């Protein structure tokens, strides 16, 4: 579903990725873990075309974008647009339109981008809100919702575009601790239903262990380890992984 090949990404003089490569299969649930600043969020943003990169290529299905040292050509701008139609993204901040109700936030893009009829969009929105236990807030505005409720609406808004893959960029980092569980539960249900490729950057280790088919451990822009959750959390190969996990798990 997603292939990254020889990715190079720098911010001014700071080099983050130096030839990073990975592959994610269709329908796979992948979790990125690692210290803050290790490149998890930037990697997600590169996949979705929100960040450019200097060299390498990213392919989503049969759509490829290349490093911008070649210049961002019109054909690649179109490729990014097509990728964004296939890949939904949920951010750390909720980014809901404050002047729109929950329903309006969800139907806006399907109506204007997917050219869905209002009736079809409304029916889909109601179905999604039931799926996340938010149908009772359909006419509420974002300021009337808790942080956890806003993030659940943001997830429904992304799903309304009918993506084939979903990216979650530390979706609970802006939430109060008591609200984290309700958002993780929605994401877990989405993963458990299967079929959709899901990539999650998170510091929630128990959640990562529970939902992932594969885990990538990032540090300083490098994949230092990858494997199934049992292997990563029980017997990691590298000292850098053990040092990172020791912050969360007493066994290390």
Explain this structure.
This protein is an alpha/beta fold. The chain is 38% helix and 25% strand. The protein contains 9 helices and 10 strands. The strands form 2 sheets. Strands 6-7-8-3-9-10 form a 6-stranded mixed β-sheet, with helices on both faces. It has a 4-stranded antiparallel β-sheet with strand order 2-1-4-5, covered by helices on one side. Helix 6 links the parallel strand 7 and strand 8. Helix 3 crosses helix 4 and helix 5 runs parallel beside helix 6. The protein is globular, with a radius of gyration of 18 Å. The mean pLDDT is 91.
How would you briefly describe this protein structure?
With 252 residues, the protein is of the alpha/beta class.
Topology record:
Elements (H helix, E strand, L loop, with lengths): L1 E10 L2 E11 L4 E5 L6 H8 L7 E6 L2 E4 L7 H13 E4 L11 H11 L5 H14 L15 H13 L5 E5 L7 H17 L3 E5 L3 H7 L2 E6 L2 E6 L1 H6 L4 H7 L7
Parallel strand pairs: 3-8, 3-9, 6-7, 7-8
Antiparallel strand pairs: 1-2, 1-4, 4-5, 9-10
